[in-house]
């Protein structure tokens, strides 16, 4: 089992004793309910708030869907958190602690009697109480089984269709389930190869948790089974009562007249599939070594091996001394750095790399968007074709869409009590997981034996609150993205000893010629009312080795190899359940140290933050493999025993992992910020982009200023977050340097000088993308924003491409996109997603311009590119590209899409809750902030 779970016999015995009571209460009970649990004390005392738009209710009957399409009506509690969330854009300037609930909901435990909207008891040992304001389920159980059953039942009430979608995405069966729309094809083709499993593989992961994680593992699987039982109870009841989600009718699963059809039962292995989608996309890290190798080869081809490597390393920026840090007190946590003498690196021969073929045997509309609409009954015509663009629109989910990168998400701002007005720590934090209708997460409160928490959980894996608050503490996470995925070059062979080819299906494993395992998914679809994509089918196929999934073929030194991707959490998609169980257990988490220990049991790569009345703290989780000495984790490595992870066992994909103390962690630092930036000194970046300018600077600069002033309040910390959320990173952090170069001599062209003045005025006003008046849908400096949006990609290319050359420039932009503005549909997040300014050449431009200006630069680029390093030449490059950008009309900068007309700047930036079902929502003002967000300050502790 993974070393993180190794415990002494004495510790194991203690754990069994500690959990004995709850284990005895885990089985379904009949007859009288158990005694009431001890009442909990809410130590937040009204100072915990949260919000999750658009609303708690994510299910809609067929009638409600048709009403939404015909009249724009919404089911109760499906959109009642939109306006408060949106209102913070206009309202943050005058924000006070008393006004926080104008923009956030009360996150106190329980529901006052006069605020109870409904009470449901799906079993004698659990009640689900929903409040009038938001409809959030407050689940209270007298037994452990009843509590978890209630959680599953409430998940069914709020997210049944969404959970069904995600178990089919995880299983690579989306098109067969929801239709063959081109976006659906693309989505399953991107997600399934990252975590392909047989049913036996999924069952093995359930058994592994149950048998290798001690008493907590047994309890976790008992909880998960109770949760599944609750989902299935609601599934059956809603089907029989005909109030199930209407999407089942529109996709042909159930007949609206006869009620014939079925919602397939959920099972434990579905939870593993859902966990693989959620954890892999938000909690993965590393990978991409083949593309990194290609950009390194391009640099070496241009400059020679030594100089090309030096140039490439300066762009790779594994350890940029100017990068914003979460742990900023100088503590070092060395991990995944560049070795002094690399061993086993397996760079491909030039021009030899080809991607592994995934799709086979296409028929009909496969690979196309060809439609063949069915004749819809008159009463369903309003919903005709609602999923023609995909049940999950292309690019909406992280890591999906053409050229998309896995995106780190979420942000956190915490200030220690020494710098707050009350003397208690304050936190404003939450996950930034995109915008969907319904959301991927759902709010809930869980109170039962061994469980006491309120917050969010991803739908389908909501046995425990994953981010939220306990009785006297709160916690949240941001994606960390440290390197837990490596690429191996496995040498190919033929079992008869003949010469292998690039497409050979055998490989050398520790000296033996071994057959690759073939995993397949055969999907087919026919048109439905919801998705009119014509009939079609295809087969997805991946090859699995002991070193992971084959992603590419190439030659290395003339020998054919397969490049494979090996993620440490592969075959361990749900092991993190142990850490979440601990976070929900009030008898386990009692202070910052016990919180950090709980977080260390979460295998995915996350930054975890904690606040109680005494301490703010941080811990970075993840199954960080211990690599062999000399292995360069940034590049492919030979698949030989000498270069394997320490103690690597491919049977269950286990290895040795770095110990607790080697993960970045801190307690009591003056403040913490995280926006998917670098964690700490020594903790090497897993990819390109953690450089001198990062969106984390938007938080760090503001929070550092607040801390210097002292007397921080919940409102002032929220204001700092909200201001950063509407600020253009390029305008705040890079425009001053651009203007300094441009103003190094007078701009003699009056028209161009006017353009420069517009940019200067925008910068002086705060570089914001924010309405001048609420509801105006117009920015006060709209022209300056348009110019910057048009200029940035052009100036990056004009600045770097001449010096780098076409080949190297293209290779580097394949590793890191140049821009991710709010309106950029090509960014890692896609259009209308809120999240912006994570991936881009901000740091490269910053360092290059400072080098041109002769300013000090720590960790400089190996060469200076703008104007060949000459100030006048650089100025000419910037002015020339600026003139072209200024002349570009708004209709070209913002070309329009299904939501917006061409030229509509505000709309191009706006947030759209992508419908994952039949209910659509209105657009919101752009904000670069968490989807679910907490504002917390605990005045007391147990």
Relevant terms:
10-stranded mixed sheet, disordered N terminus, single chain
Structural overview:
There is one protein chain. The protein is an alpha+beta fold. The chain is 33% helix and 17% strand. It contains 23 helices and 30 strands. The strands form five sheets. Strands 3-4-5-12-13-14-15-23-24-26 form a ten-stranded mixed β-sheet, covered by helices on one side. Strand 17 and strand 18 form a beta hairpin. Helix 4 crosses helix 10. The chain is globular. The chain starts with 8 loop residues before the first helix and ends in a 6-residue tail after the last strand. The N terminus is likely disordered.
What gross morphology would you assign? globular
- What is the assembly state of the chains in this entry? single chain
Report how far apart the termini are: 35 Å
Average pLDDT number: 93
User: Which spans of ≥5 residues are poorly predicted at pLDDT below 50?
Assistant: 1-34, 400-406
Biggest sheet statistics: 10 strands, mixed
Per DSSP E runs of 2 or more residues, the count of β-strands stands at 30
Helix content: 25-40%
The helix count comes to 23
Strand order of the largest sheet: 3-4-5-12-13-14-15-23-24-26
């Amino acid at each position: 089992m993974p070393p993180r779970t190794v415990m002494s016999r004495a510790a194991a015995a203690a754990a069994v004793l500690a959990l004995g009571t709850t284990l005895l209460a885990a089985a379904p009970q009949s007859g009288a309910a158990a005694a009431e649990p001890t009442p909990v004390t809410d130590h937040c005392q009204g100072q915990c708030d949260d919000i999750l738009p658009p609303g708690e209710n994510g299910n809609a009957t067929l009638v409600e869907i048709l009403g939404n399409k015909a009249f724009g009506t919404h089911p109760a509690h499906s959109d009642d958190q939109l306006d408060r969330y949106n209102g913070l854009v206009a309202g943050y300037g005058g924000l006070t602690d008393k006004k926080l609930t104008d923009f956030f909901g009360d996150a106190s435990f329980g529901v006052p009697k006069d605020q109870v909207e409904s009470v449901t008891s799906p079993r004698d040992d659990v009640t689900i109480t929903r409040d009038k304001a938001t409809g959030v389920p407050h689940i209270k159980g007298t037994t452990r089984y009843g509590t978890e059953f209630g959680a599953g039942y409430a998940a069914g009430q709020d997210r049944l269709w969404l959970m069904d979608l995600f178990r089919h995405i995880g299983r690579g069966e989306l098109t067969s389930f929801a239709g063959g729309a081109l976006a659906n094809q693309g989505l399953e083709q991107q997600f399934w190869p990252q975590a392909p499993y047989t049913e036996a593989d999924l069952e093995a992961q359930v058994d592994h948790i149950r048998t290798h994680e001690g008493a907590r593992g047994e309890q976790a699987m008992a909880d998960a089974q109770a949760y599944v039982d609750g989902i299935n109870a609601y599934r059956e009841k809603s089907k029989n009562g005909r109030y199930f989600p209407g999407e089942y009718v529109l996709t042909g699963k159930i007949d609206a007249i006869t009620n014939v059809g079925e919602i397939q039962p959920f099972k434990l292995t579905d939870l593993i599939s859902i966990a693989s989608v959620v954890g892999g996309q938000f909690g993965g890290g590393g990978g991409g070594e083949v593309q990194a190798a290609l950009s390194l080869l391009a640099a070496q081809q241009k400059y020679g091996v030594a100089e090309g490597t030096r140039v490439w390393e300066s762009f790779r920026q594994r350890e940029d001394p100017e990068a914003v840090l979460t742990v900023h007190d100088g503590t070092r946590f060395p991990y995944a750095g560049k070795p002094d003498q690399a061993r086993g690196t397996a760079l491909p021969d030039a021009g030899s790399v080809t991607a592994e073929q995934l799709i086979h045997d296409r028929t009909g509309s496969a690979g196309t968007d060809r439609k063949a609409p069915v004749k819809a009954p008159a009463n369903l015509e309003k919903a005709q074709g609602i999923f023609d663009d995909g049940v999950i629109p292309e690019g909406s989910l992280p890591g999906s869409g053409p050229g998309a990168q896995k995106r780190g998400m979420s942000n956190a701002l915490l200030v220690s009590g020494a710098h707050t007005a009350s003397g208690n720590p304050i936190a404003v934090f939450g996950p930034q997981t995109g915008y969907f209708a319904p959301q991927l997460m759902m709010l809930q409160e869980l109170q039962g034996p061994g469980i006491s928490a309120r917050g969010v959980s991803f739908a389908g894996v909501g046995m425990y609150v994953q981010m939220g608050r306990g009785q006297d503490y709160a916690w949240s996470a941001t994606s960390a993205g440290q390197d837990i995925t490596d690429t191996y070059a496995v040498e190919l062979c033929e079992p008869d000893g003949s010469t292998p080819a690039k497409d050979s299906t055998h490989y050398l494993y520790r000296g033996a010629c071994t057959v690759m395992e073939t995993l397949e998914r055969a999907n087919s679809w026919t048109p439905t009312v919801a998705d009119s994509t014509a009939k079609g089918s295809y087969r997805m196929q991946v090859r699995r080795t002991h070193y992971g999934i084959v992603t590419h073929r190439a030659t290395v030194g003339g020998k054919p190899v397969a490049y494979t991707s090996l993620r440490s959490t592969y075959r361990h998609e749900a092991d993190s359940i142990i850490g979440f169980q601990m976070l929900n257990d009030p008898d386990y988490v009692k202070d910052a140290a016990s919180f950090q220990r709980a977080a260390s049991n979460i295998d995915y790569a996350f930054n975890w933050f904690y606040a109680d009345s005494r301490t703010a703290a941080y811990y970075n989780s993840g199954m960080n493999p211990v690599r062999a000495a000399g292995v360069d984790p940034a590049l492919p490595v030979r698949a030989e025993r000498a270069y394997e992870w320490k103690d690597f066992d491919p049977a269950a994909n286990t290895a040795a992992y770095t110990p607790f103390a080697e993960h970045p962690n801190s307690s009591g630092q003056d403040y913490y910020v995280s926006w998917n930036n670098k964690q700490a000194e020594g903790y090497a970046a897993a990819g390109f982009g953690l450089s001198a300018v990062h969106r984390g600077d938007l938080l760090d600069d503001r929070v550092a200023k607040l801390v210097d002033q002292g007397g921080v309040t919940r409102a002032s910390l929220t204001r700092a977050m909200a201001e950063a959320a509407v600020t253009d990173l390029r305008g705040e952090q890079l425009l001053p340097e651009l203007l300094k170069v441009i103003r190094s001599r007078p701009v003699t062209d009056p028209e161009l000088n006017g353009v420069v003045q517009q940019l200067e005025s925008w910068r002086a006003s705060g570089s914001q993308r924010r309405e001048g008046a609420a509801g105006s849908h117009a920015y006060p400096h709209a022209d300056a924003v348009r110019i910057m949006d048009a200029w940035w990609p052009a100036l990056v290319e004009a600045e770097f491409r001449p010096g780098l050359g076409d080949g190297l420039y293209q290779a580097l932009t394949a590793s890191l996109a140049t821009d991710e503005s709010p309106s950029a549909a090509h960014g890692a997040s896609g259009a209308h997603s809120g999240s912006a300014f994570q991936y881009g050449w901000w740091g490269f431009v910053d360092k290059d311009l400072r080098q041109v200006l002769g300013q000090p630069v720590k960790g400089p680029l190996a060469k200076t590119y703008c104007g060949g390093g000459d100030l006048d030449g650089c100025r000419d490059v910037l002015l020339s590209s600026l003139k072209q950008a200024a002349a570009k009309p708004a209709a070209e900068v913002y070309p329009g899409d299904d939501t917006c007309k061409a030229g509509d700047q505000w709309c191009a930036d706006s947030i759209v809750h992508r419908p994952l079902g039949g209910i659509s929502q209105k657009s919101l003002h752009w904000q670069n902030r968490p989807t679910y967000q907490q504002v917390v300050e605990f005045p007391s502790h147990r």
